[in-house]
Hints:
The protein is α+β, with helices and mostly antiparallel strands and 731 residues long. The chain has a domain at 16-38 and 476-729: 3-Layer(aba) Sandwich (Rossmann fold), CATH 3.40.50.1820. 15% of the residues lie in helices and 35% in strands. Helix 1 (30-38) packs antiparallel against helix 11 (711-729). It is globular, with a radius of gyration of 25 Å. The two termini are 38 Å apart.
Amino acid sequence: MSPTRKTALLLATTLVTTAQATTLQATPTTCYADLAATRNFTLGLPTHATPTPDGQSILFLRSAPRDTTLHLFQTTLKTSTTTELARPSATPEHLSTQEKARRERARQSLTGITDIAIAPNGQFALATQGGTLERIDLTTHTTTPLPGTWIAPRLSPNAHAVAVVKDNDLYTLSLTTNTTTRLTHTGSETLTNGLAEFAAAEELQRPDGTWWSPDSQTLLYEQADTSPVEKHYIANPGDPAQAPTEFRYPRAGTPNARIKLGLIPARGGKTTWVAWDSTAYPYLGRVVWRPDGGLMLVVQNRTETEERLLSVDPKTGTTRTLLTNTDTAWVGLTPQENSGGKDLPYALPHNAGFLWAAQPGPHWQLELHHPDGTLARILTPQPHPFYALNDYDPTTNTIVITTNPDRLTNEIDRISLTDGTITTLATEPGLHHVTFTDGQHDIFTDTFSSADGTRRTLVRNHTGKILATLPSVAETPTLALHTEFTTSGPQNLDTLIIHPDDYQPGRHYPTLLSVYAGPGYKTVYRTPASYYEDQCLANHGYVVVSFDGRGTPGRDHDFERAIKNNLIDIPLHDQIEGLQSAAKTHPEMDLSRTGVFGWSFGGYFTAMATIRRPDIFKAGNAGAPPVDWSDYDTAYTERYLGTPQSDPEGYRISNVLTYAPKLSRPLLLMHGLTDDNVYFENTMKLTQALTLAGKPYSLMLLPGTHMLPNPVLRARVNETRTDFFNKTLKP
C-alpha cells in the first residue's frame, strides 16, 4: 500500500486506554530514548547525495546528530573539503495542506532544506525549504531567495525557469527575471493542475505531475478532477475549535480522480490534450520524454492486469501503442519501489530504441526494445534479477544497473549494449542505492547499508572504485546488533533472528514476531542497521524474528502473487510455519510465549493473527491496521482483491471484523487520529466490534499521522509495546 513504505517508527502520545480501564505503564529506557533522538542513528548521515555535472564535487543534505533539520553541504573531491552552502531559516515552517499531504505521500518527516536540484550547467543549485526556493551559486556560494511560496518545483533542463504550483494552478518562475507566468487558470478545490493525484503518489510510485520537455519549451502536466471522489474529513480532537480538513479519498470500489494530460508552452498559451482511452486505462504510471522531444506513457487498466506503453506525438497529442503487458493477477510497474533508479521506459538517443523492464518469467529482466516496441534482446539473465536502471552513457553505449544476486543483498553492474558484456562495479554485501547526475557518467554516489552493520555514503568512479566517503556526523551506535540471517521452512522463507545482548545458550526466551507480511514490502535484508528497534526490544529478554512469506516481493512472480483474492490465509500460514521451523533449529525460542507486532499491513496481520490463532500468538500489538479493506484506497486494494462489488467473499475473508468476536488474547491497538492513509475509522470499527462482543482490548491514541517528529513520543511507542509484552508474555 503504501502500507509499503512503512517503517515501524510511528509515534504516539502516552495516553493508553483499555476496554477494562487497565493502565499500561511505560518503562523509560535509555535504548529507546537514544534511538528516538537519533532516528536509529540515521540523523547526521548524508542524504540526497548527488554529484555535480563536472564531477568535481558532491552536494548533499545533512542534519545534526539529534536534529531533524536538514542543511545543504558540498564536498570537493580534490581537496576533501566540505562546506555548508545553505542553512534553513530559523522561522518555523507553515506548510499548506497540500504540501503536508505531499510530504505524507513521500514519507518526508525531516524539515529544513528537503530537496535540491542541480542546474545541468553546474552553475547553481535550487534548494527547497517548505514552500520557498533559494538559488545557490556553486562558485561564489551566494544564496538568493526566489519570490513567492510554491509547491512541487521542477527545474527546467536549460536551468532558466522552474515549474511550480500554487492554489492548484501551474506556473513558471523565471530564474533570470524572477517573474512568474501563470499557465493554467482552472485550479480549484477539486481540480488540480501540475500535481500527482493521491492514487499515483501513494500507490503507483509516481510523485510528479509536471514534466519539462528536453528543450525546455513545453510542459506536460496532469490535470486531476477529484470531484467524483468521496469526501473524507479529518478533525483534530486535540483542538476541537479547528475545522476538519477535507480530503478526497478513493476507497476501494468507489470513483477515482479523473485525470488528463496537457501539453502547454512554457511561455504560456493553449493546452493540447493527450488522447488515450483513460476510461479503459485510468492509471497513469510513468511519463518519459524522449531525447528527440517525443513522449512515452505507461498506463494501466483499473484492475492493474494490463499495462500499455504509449508513444505520444507532442504536436497533436495523439497516441499509439508500442507494447502491451498482461498478468492474470496484476502487472507490476517497477521491480521495487524506492530503488533510486530511473523511470522506465528509458529512451535511447538517435532513435535507438528504449530500455524496458518486464517479468515474463519468475524474475524481473531488463530489455532493449526497438523504436516500434518489438523486443531486440534481453539484457539481464534470469539468475541476475533486475532491480533498477541507474545510468546510460551514450559515449560508451553502456548502462549501470542494480541487480539482486541473492534475495538479501544487491550489487552494481555495468552492461555494454554493444556486446552484452557485464562488468561488476560493487559487490560488497548489503544494499546499494545509486545516484548519477544526468550527463555525468564518471562518478556516482552509493548510499550503502552494509552487511557489517555500518551505513556509508560512498563516491565511486566508473569502475566502481571508492574515491571518497562523504562526512557523517551521526552518532556512533551505542547498541550492539545480534542479527542472524537464514531461511526457514519448506518454502525457504528469508528469515531474521535477533538475540538479546545478554543471550545465554540453553535458556528459553519468549519470542516476538516483528511482521509486515504484505505485498509490496520485503522485511528481511542483510542490513543489520535496519533493525535497531527490534534489537532494543530483544534486549528486554526476547528473541525477535521476521520472515518474508508468500505475498512479499523480491523473490519470484508466483511467490509474490500467491495472495491474490485473499490477503490473510497464506501469509498467516507462512509466518506460523516460519516460526515453527526456526524454533526447531533455535530451541531458545519459546513458542509457548509468542507475541506479534507490526504497523500498517503488519498491524492488520497482527490483529488477524492474534484473533485467529490464539494457539500460537499469546499477545499482539497492531499499529494502524487496515481493518476493513473496503475502507482502503483503490489502486492498492483492488490490485489484490478486486472491488468489494466484484469479490465480496475475498473482502469478507480478508476483513478483521469477520473474526473480531473471537478475540481471546491481549491486543494493543495503536493508531494516529489524523492518519490520511489508513484512516482512524479502521481502528474505530475494530474497537466497536470488540466492545459489542464483550472483548477487552488496549488502545493507544497517537496525535497526528505516523510521522510525528517528537523524539519523546517516538520512544513512548516502543516503551509501551515493551511494557505490554512484558506483562503478557513473561511470568
